[in-house]
Design a protein that fits this description.
Largest sheet: 9 strands, mixed
Number of strands: 11
CATH superfamily of one domain: Periplasmic binding protein-like II
Shape: globular
Number of helices: 17
CATH architecture of one domain: 3-Layer(aba) Sandwich
Distance between the termini: 12 Å
Strand content: 5-15%
Oligomer: single chain
Structural class: alpha/beta
Helix content: 25-40%
CATH topology of one domain: D-Maltodextrin-Binding Protein, domain 2
CATH class of one domain: Alpha Beta
């Protein structure tokens, strides 16, 4: 089933996000219930006691929103429940709750990556009428319009954005200063900086990227392909681009980074990359922005004051960034039995201005005009958002990604040639498109 495959992939690669998110994605929470913010949640009290179950993973970037929903909207006859869960668990439960006519959850966190697929199969409730009804009461027009579009499909809104996650580069400013380096803006410069750090004796493997073979590796390939100006599928001809010159170049560019990374890189997800930076075994990393705040916390690493942030490099000079943007938001599943009007007010309350402020610096909120000077990586994330390739917001992206992830890993690790791998990916994508 496409749902299952899509969400298995998302669990491995976001968050980066997802992006998102997150998105950020996959971590346990570094915050607790103290991140809850009391805001107005003024629904009409239902006649009977009503329990609303919320599905969202725990992380320092997401907790302020889910905790606010629980604390602010639990009153009168309504009880909002959100049980702690990691990202992998959320993915599995999302797949299960959307599989039948009756689900276990009434509010689910979703991501721009999967919204087109889920919306095209009518798994989510359109939110446009509810958005229009409550936009003034909850100041929803302050949510960035481009992020609302990212959570839309076929002109309809299916997710209320809370935050965005974007691939962001982190580097050791002390080692860069020592070696006379500037943040790399191209892969050529990234290789040069990594080689200089290697040759200086500062570390054996200075570059750390999340290339987990079961998921993150596909995010890396797509980021490289998009940086070179190609999507998975040509939107006009509906022809896959995996045998294109850009696809071959994307693989060659990614493989050229291997000498500067730990040989076990295809076993590294984002938490493992984060750990490399914590313990000083890497000097450059590219991860989703929701993980950046943890790097500057003294409780996490003695190197907390040695990190600086920038937008990721482009694969080649003049191209788009090696980027990926994931928008995290709230959706209403098609099979909930709870009144949609009531549920939407919970969503709207949780992304209020106060809750969004409380998420800084861990998250990059979807609301415009917030003071982000407390965030050490906000400027880098903004530059990454502005320079990221446009998202390929199509239903075929998740199933094609799932179908090709293993092949991408085999090509990167040399178990399959680039030529054979790209042909196999092209065939897999054609099969997916034939089923759409």
């Amino acid at each position: 089933m496409h749902v299952s495959r899509s969400f298995r992939l998302l669990a491995a690669g976001l968050l980066s996000v997802s992006l998102i998110g997150l998105s950020a994605c996959g971590a346990g929470s570094r915050t607790g219930a103290e991140t809850a913010t009391k805001v107005a949640c003024d629904f009409v009290n239902p006649a009977e006691p009503t329990t609303i179950n919320v599905l969202a993973y725990n992380s320092s970037a997401v907790d302020p929103y889910s905790n606010t929903m629980v604390s602010s909207c639990t009153h009168d006859n309504v009880t909002v429940k959100h049980d702690p869960i990691d990202f992998g668990g959320q993915v599995q439960k999302t797949t299960a709750t959307l599989a039948g006519d009756t689900g276990s959850y009434d509010v689910i966190e979703t991501y721009s990556f999967v919204v087109p697929d889920l919306a095209s199969r009518e798994k989510l409730v359109p939110l446009d009428d509810l958005f229009a009804k409550y936009k003034d009461a909850y100041q929803l027009d302050d949510i960035d319009e481009s992020l609302r579009k990212a959570m839309s499909y076929d002109g309809k809104l299916y997710g209320l954005p809370m935050q965005t996650q974007v691939l962001t580069m982190v580097y050791r400013k002390d080692l860069f200063e020592k070696n006379g380096l500037q943040p790399p803006t191209t892969f050529d410069e990234l290789r040069e900086a990594s080689k200089k750090l290697q040759d200086s004796g500062d570390m054996k493997y200075p570059l750390a990227l999340p290339w987990l073979a079961s998921g993150d590796i596909s995010t890396a390939y797509k980021a490289a392909l998009n940086s070179l100006g190609k999507d998975f599928v040509d939107a006009t001809t509906k022809t896959p681009n995996f045998t294109s010159e850009e696809s071959v170049q994307a693989f060659e560019e990614l493989k050229s980074l291997l000498p500067f990374m730990d040989p076990q890189v295809t076993t590294f997800d984002q938490p493992k990359v984060q750990q490399q930076l914590y313990n000083g075994s890497a000097a450059i990393g590219i991860m989703f922005s929701g993980r950046m705040n943890d790097l500057v916390q003294q409780k996490n690493t003695k190197l907390y004051d040695k990190f600086a942030f920038a937008a990721p490099p482009a694969v080649e000079d003049g191209g788009k960034q090696y980027g990926a943007l994931s928008v995290d938001g709230w959706s209403i599943p098609f099979n909930t039995k709870i009144d949609h009007d009531l549920l939407f007010q919970l969503l709207a309350a949780s992304v209020s201005e106060d809750a969004s402020k409380a998420s800084i610096p861990a998250a990059y909120p979807a609301r415009k005009g917030l003071d982000q000077t407390a965030s050490p990586y906000a400027a880098a994330a903004k530059a990454a958002i502005d320079g990221a390739p446009p998202a390929e917001a199509q239903p075929w992206v998740p199933p094609i990604t799932a179908a090709n992830t293993e092949i991408i890993a085999q090509v990167i690790t040399g178990k399959q040639s680039v030529e054979d791998g790209t042909k196999a990916m092209q065939a897999a994508a054609e099969t997916v498109l034939s089923e759409q």
